[in-house]
Each structure stands twice: as structure tokens, then as C-alpha cells.
Design goal:
single chain; about 260 residues; mainly beta; about 15% helix; disordered N terminus
Length: about 260
């Protein structure tokens, strides 16, 4: 297992990663002036953050090989701060054998470092980010992503907590629970359990028509109902949340009725 924490091109050079075609094709290292302004590298789960933009919380990455397939393990990086990047001109390297595949379908295209080698477009990355956060190694300069290279990663444990959530935008919120405050995202697969009579009702409007004895909503709704309801709240609201802290992904949100 090889542990890599990278912040400058000098450190990257020691791994040999700057010799990959994905970076060489950008021409960023072809002149002394640009080479002096060394690119940075971040490992983590990329999330959509508006048109042509992504956000990623830096993680510590370790490569491993099992059964001849290289994958990466990501762990928290102390003091890491979220990075927001424009990827509209970035090279996107997928682990799938074709750009338009949703899943690997049992066949992967990986470099010797375990990164995707199917070269795709920023539009393909946009489509990937709609479906799920993308585990990737991202080379960037300033606020611009140069390359986004997917890798395979193992599953991590989900967590259930009660706390409050506050809306950031239509795909992001902050959650405050016993472990502190975290920024989380969600995609169309989010499940939303409501205590209200209808999925389209404002947050906790009317009497709790669909709630168990602990005040937890029992009416099954979807991500669009959650987006609408949270926007209507206008304040932090209590929930029971199932989420994955490593991916920063909300999986199931349960509305909690007043007084529960």
C-alpha cells in the first residue's frame, strides 16, 4: 500500500504521476513560467457546485491492489478545507471503458496508478456528477481543474444521527449533530420521509398526519419534495439523517414533527 498526500508538483514528481498523458496533453508544464507556478493535486469525492463547477473536500489517499485491480482508500485529512474548481476545460478520465456508461459493467480501464484512462469531456463529467459524487484525483491550477481522473474506491460505513439541517442550495445543506457541523450533498436517489399529509406540503405544515410515536415522518417522498420543503423552511429544521460521512452524501432524511 502506498500513501500519497500531495500538494505541489515537486511531491507529485516523486510518484511519477506528472508523466501521465492526461497532464502532458494539457501543455501546462511545457514552459518555465507555467512550470514555476506548480499545479496542485487533491484526492476526494467531487460534487457538482453549479454550472461547470465542482467542490471537493481534500482526503488522504492510499492505493491498494486486490485481485489485480487497483483501487483507492480515502481517509479524513486534518485541517482540510473545501476546494471549488471550474472544470469546463478539464480532461475527464473515466474508469469505465466508454464515456457514456453508467457503470463499469464488469470491465475497467485503469492506469498502473489505478486512475481512469478513458478520456472523456467536461460534459461527461457533468452527467456523472448528476448521478453521484465522483471519487477522483484532481489536478488544478488556481481555480481551474486541469484533469479529473476517476478511481475505484471501497464502500465506507453509513451513519444515522438526529440533528438540524440548514439549506445551502438545491443540492446541498449543512447538518449539525452530535459530531459537529458537516456540509452534505444529495442526488436524485435521496429518500425523504415526511410527517405532513402530502409530499408537496411546506416543512411541517399542518398537523403531523404521517408520523410514528417518536415523531418521525413515515410518508415516502423523493428528492424533489425534499428540495421544495427545505426551501420553504427558511430556518434550521430537525431531522433524522442517514448519510455517508466520507462521501458527504445524504441518503435518507426523515422529517421530525414538532415536540418530538
Amino acid at each position: 500500500m502506498r500513501l500519497i498526500t500531495v500538494s505541489t508538483a515537486l511531491t507529485i514528481a516523486a510518484t511519477g504521476l506528472l508523466s501521465t498523458p492526461a497532464i502532458a496533453a494539457t501543455g501546462l508544464l511545457s514552459t518555465p513560467a507555467v512550470a514555476a507556478a506548480t499545479p496542485s493535486v487533491v484526492y476526494g469525492f467531487a460534487w457538482s457546485d453549479g454550472a461547470g463547477a465542482l467542490r471537493v473536500l481534500p482526503r488522504r489517499g492510499a492505493m491498494k491492489s486486490s485481485g489485480g485491480v487497483r483501487s483507492w482508500t480515502l481517509k479524513a485529512l486534518a485541517g482540510a478545507k473545501e476546494v471549488r474548481l471550474d472544470y469546463r476545460a478539464a480532461v475527464y478520465n473515466r474508469v469505465t471503458t466508454a464515456c457514456d456508461l453508467v457503470e463499469t459493467e464488469g470491465h475497467v480501464a485503469l492506469t498502473k496508478f489505478g486512475f481512469g484512462k478513458t478520456r472523456c469531456t467536461p460534459a461527461d463529467l457533468t452527467y456523472s456528477l448528476v448521478r453521484a459524487p465522483v471519487p477522483a484525483r484532481i489536478v488544478y491550477q488556481g481555480t481551474k481543474a486541469v484533469s479529473v481522473s476517476e478511481f475505484l474506491t471501497g464502500e465506507s460505513a453509513d451513519r444515522t444521527q438526529r440533528g438540524t439541517i440548514t439549506r445551502v442550495n438545491d443540492t446541498t445543506f449543512t447538518f449539525t449533530g452530535k459530531t459537529g457541523t458537516e456540509k452534505l450533498g444529495y442526488v436524485y436517489t435521496l429518500a425523504f420521509n415526511r410527517a405532513t399529509a402530502k409530499c408537496g406540503d411546506a416543512w411541517l405544515s399542518g398537523k403531523p398526519a404521517n408520523a410514528d410515536k417518536k415523531g418521525r415522518g413515515t410518508r415516502a417522498c423523493d428528492f424533489s419534495a425534499f428540495t421544495k420543503a427545505l426551501k420553504s423552511a427558511g430556518r434550521p429544521v430537525p431531522v433524522e439523517l442517514l448519510y455517508n460521512p466520507l462521501r458527504q452524501e445524504a441518503l435518507n432524511i426523515t422529517e421530525i414533527s414538532s415536540g418530538a
